[in-house]
From TrEMBL:
<protein>
    <submittedName>
        <fullName>Uncharacterized conserved protein</fullName>
    </submittedName>
</protein>
<dbReference type="InterPro" id="IPR013211">
    <property type="entry name" value="LVIVD"/>
</dbReference>
<dbReference type="Pfam" id="PF08309">
    <property type="entry name" value="LVIVD"/>
</dbReference>
Amino acid sequence: MRNLVFVLCTFALAVLVSCDDDGPYENYQVARPILQDAISFKAEAVDVMEPIPIESSGKIYAYRDYIFVNDVNKGFHVIDNQNPSSPESIAFIKLEGNFDISIKDDKLYADSYGDLVIFDISDINNISIQSRIVNAIYNNDVWLSTIEFPQADFYDYGDIDYDKDIVTGWEVRTERRLVSEYEEQFNCDVCLNSDASENYSESPQPSVGQGGSLARFKIIGDYLYVVDYSDINIFDIEDVENVKILDDVQVAWDIETIYSQGNILFIGGSQGMYIYGIENPEKPEYISEFRHGTACDPVVVDGNYAYVTLKGGGFCGNTESGLYVIDIANLENPELKVIYPMDGPNGLGIKEDTLFICDGASGLKVYDKSNAPNITLINTFEDIVAYDVIPLSSSLLMIGDGLLYQYEYINNDIRLLSTFEL
């Protein structure tokens, strides 16, 4: 009987861990990317359609009498705002792999899987695609980092040609693999080498639209600046029929937003704010940076102060949420002056002496900053989720949780003008 038990136990162990001359094996989850031909995939990724409900509201952009709302990774909704009390959705521009846009002279510039796509919106009721510049912003391998990864023990990328293939998803299978092969993944001294980390890492002019503080696109004069995950991508758009791709400028592996004041760029990143001069607009030059703990980090600037919201928690990092007011009178030596606690801040905006902060589920907060760096809370719009805000000349746009809010300025206060469900 004892021998029978021993045999059964030995058989059970063999099922769980099999051995041969190479060593023990076990069952592991192996994930492989699902590929599609990039040419056909991108051709299917663009379309101008009738209005549809929004799935995940992202950034907003204002141009003349129209508002453009990003549907994260899917495209953007076009809203006729000639009557701010009663806005009307008029179209949806399907543009997969899209996160942001910028507009000048009726030409709309957008990203799609790392390509730069240009639309003609001179006839808003007949929007047409003008051109697509492949891999102008980043290669498809960077797009891969935006696809949600499945839980797996191994990720087998295979032989992907990023100029020809697009990763559309993942399939996960159970396979027998060496235990030693699995363990080697956790004993890698060079997995985080510098090369790998580099791969992942204002009143508008009348003819140029206006984005919020979370923008990755910024048009200044005849140049379009786009921040990806590590670089400033620069385009000469003076001749829209012949857009010139200029040399990128590497900033950091974690950059997220771009803002400008005069000939200075302020780049927001999860580790800090980076300051670049564009006296030569084709070659931004590093001036200085202000470092902080890991957090999501949009920035706006007015005069001698930069206002930076840091959102901690979740994927944003462990830094406590707050508003940082930074003295930039000396651009080469930015100096933190005050930190104001916040609950979960996102975008922010400035109009004259008023500072607007989208504090997530805590609503829209309005501050008087006339005594900067000291600011005073003068109003709070509660019971709403505030994501990003654009202060215009006569009204304020704010988006959050699938809703577009418009406020009008009244003396030193603002009041709700309309709410539009996207």
